[in-house]
Amino acid sequence: xxxxxxxxxxxxxxxxxxxxxxxxxxxxxxxxxxxxxxxxxxxxxxxxxxxxxxxxxxxxxxxxxxxxxxxxxxxxxxxxxxxxxxxxxxxxxxxxxxxxxxxxxxxxxxxxxxxxxxxxxxxxxxxxxxxxxxxxxxxxxxxxxxxxxxxxxxxxxxxxxxxxxxxxxxxx
Length: 172
Fold this sequence. Notes:
By secondary structure, the protein is mainly beta. The protein is 6% helix and 44% strand. The chain has one helix and six strands; from the N terminus they run ββββαββ. A five-stranded mixed barrel has the order 1-3-4-6-5. The radius of gyration is 24 Å and the shape is globular. 11% of the residues are buried. This is Single-stranded DNA-binding protein. It comes from Streptomyces werraensis.
């Protein structure tokens, strides 16, 4: 895999355009990335050159980006860089830099956001699962000595629905 992965920090420059395609949802928007530098003569920060990238998102990322992003918001985009040269209006040499996004999120160094998990589509083929649903065993049998087996029946190790949570151990 000789792909150029980039992580770009900037501001949303255009409203996300969302489309339903044959291959699934797709969204695109532009991001503006301006370099800042310390100007010693003025003794202050100054803006440098601004680069614009077209960000492409697909599937669930497209749906979530279109619902979450607005012009001017600070974002971080991670994805594959694609630089293309094309001919426009008969003139060769037009270059565009696109990012095929893997991840898009608000820049929490510059503000706050409220995360809402998107619901997963329900599957009608629950009985076709290749693995048993170990987490939803209704009544695990207690061990012979009366202690909890691996902490599976402890209240602190299961959620409200009785499903097991992974145990986390901190090492210092």
